Amino acid sequence: MTIKSTCLFDGVMDMKIREVNENKKQFISLLLLADEQESMVDRYLEKGNMYVLEDGNVKAECVVTDEGNEILEIKNIAVDVVMLLCMYQLK
Description:
By secondary structure, the protein is of the alpha+beta class. The chain contains 3 helices and 5 strands, in the order ββααβββα. The chain has helices spanning 28-34, 38-45, 81-90, and strands spanning 2-7, 11-20, 49-54, 58-68, 71-79. The protein has a 5-stranded antiparallel sheet, with helices on both faces. It is globular and about 40 Å long. The two termini are 23 Å apart.
């Protein structure tokens, strides 16, 4: 999926959402903004589906787990501070 957005200080950005299937731990720093205990992140990181929003750099991450009985749970969702500032300027 591709998202086009205009940011007042960045111009036009092409962003993509992609699923991460391996080396998920490389994204731990942003995940720790939403869940400060690395031991808790470790509990769901490998069993969950991870998605990142990126434009060359990671802007946001989300980890979703399948809890069974057709229930999906968002375990972690985090957005880079610079991205939040960009979104704020678009208002």
